[in-house]
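Field log, afternoon session.

UNIT: design team B
ACTIVITY: writing a sequence onto a fixed backbone
BACKBONE:
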C-alpha cells in the first residue's frame, strides 16, 4: 500500500509565502512524476505544477514565477514553495504521484491540505 501524506497548509496573508511538502511511503519500487493539484470551491481540480524524475517541471500559467516545485528522490518527497500568494490561490491542495509498487504503476493522491490566502 502506497500513501502520500501532505504537510499542513494554513492561513496566509496576501503577498505571503508558504511551503507545502508531501512524502510517499509504503511499498514503493520507483516514482516517476510527482506534482501538485488544487481545487477551489465550486471549481474543478486543476494542475498547479509537476516535476519529473530528472527534475524538469511544468507550471500552470497562473503560478509561474511565484511557485517553485522541487523533489528529493532519496526521501520520496515533493515540495511546493509558494510566494506572493494571492486570494485566488485559496484552495485544497493535493499531492500527486505516479508510483510503481511491487506490481505495477499507479496514480496516487494525498488527502489534500487547505491553503487560505486572506487578510
Amino acid at each position: 500500500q502506497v500513501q502520500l501524506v501532505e504537510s499542513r497548509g494554513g492561513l496566509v496573508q496576501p503577498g505571503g509565502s508558504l511551503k507545502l511538502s508531501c512524502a510517499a511511503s509504503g511499498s514503493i519500487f520507483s516514482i516517476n512524476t510527482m506534482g501538485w493539484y488544487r481545487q477551489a470551491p465550486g471549481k474543478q481540480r486543476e494542475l498547479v505544477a509537476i516535476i519529473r524524475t530528472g527534475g524538469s517541471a511544468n507550471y500552470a500559467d497562473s503560478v509561474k514565477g511565484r511557485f517553485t516545485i522541487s523533489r528529493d528522490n532519496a526521501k520520496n518527497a515533493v515540495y511546493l514553495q509558494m510566494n506572493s500568494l494571492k486570494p485566488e490561490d485559496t484552495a485544497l491542495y493535493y499531492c500527486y504521484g505516479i508510483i510503481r509498487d511491487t506490481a505495477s504503476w499507479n496514480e496516487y493522491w494525498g488527502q489534500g491540505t487547505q491553503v487560505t490566502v486572506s487578510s
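LOG NOTE: The two ends are 40 Å apart (CA to CA).
NEXT ACTIVITY: expression trials, pending approval
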